[in-house]
Amino acid sequence: MIGIPGPLEKMQQYLLTAQRHHANNELDSVLNQLRKFVEQLVLHLAKKNAWDLQEGNVHLAFSKTKKLFTNQNKKMLGIYLDFLKEIGNFGSHHQNEEKRLATREDIEYGLHIANRIFDDYFLTNEFPQNQPEVIDVVACPHCEQPVGKPCIKASGKPVAANCEHIARKEEYKKVIAARSPK
Predict the structure, then answer these.
(1) CB 3.0 to 4.6 Å from 145: which of 38, 109, 116, 140, for a disulfide?
(2) What is the pLDDT of residue 158?
(3) DSSP 159
(4) pTM of the shown model
């Protein structure tokens, strides 16, 4: 069927093109394709999560995408996207070859990461959705903080951001699982 490719097809095409450029030792071209991959990824998430963005505002979409990765188990994904964004930008700005900021190893690692993100999250359809914060969903059974209030330590001081008590996190998982479509 001939038509406009969807976001997943575009991301896959960028990865395939990046691999072809890598095989031909066209490293700046690989970086450009990785940048396009990340841009398409964040715009896809913006559309999927119905974020109100100005026409294709990639910077705003990237900022909102980062907020999807506050959970411990998704934090590395945010780090990977930051890395891909940074090395992708090296390819879109002309540089003196002697001062290349992205090494061959960086480029190969970036290509590996982009492929893993695509395979692990998009092909399995397990990319994170816009989910409410833990403190906005459940009270803490450990320190008895109500919904909307952060957990507190025994000293009465608040815990660090995203460091809720395990009991609260477990309650959160149950509520989110109950809300998820089966």
Answers:
(1) 140
(2) 86
(3) P
(4) 0.60
